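Supplementary Methods, section 5.1.

A reviewer requested that the exact input to the structure prediction be made available. We therefore reproduce it here, unchanged from the version used in the analyses.
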Amino acid sequence: MWALALGVGVLGALAEDDLTRTRPALLALPGTAAGMTVVLAARAAHIDWASGPALSLVCMVAGLLSAGASGHFLLKRSAALRD
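The structure derived from this sequence is encoded token-by-token as follows.
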């Protein structure tokens, strides 16, 4: 649940274009997605992959990764514009 809250908060901040305040969260998103992927891989036998919640979880991990990637792109772009 905490990863969902982190992802929603960061996506909202990206929409507001407040990169200064959300820099730590943007940098943490890819690591959070990677950590969740490792846990899911370790527990893959215990997950019903055909269920709706499993699909939602996979979409959430993909969303965290894409939000982190877009955040890194925006942070690099804003740093280049300042220089």
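The chain has a mean pLDDT of 82. These observations are discussed further in the main text.
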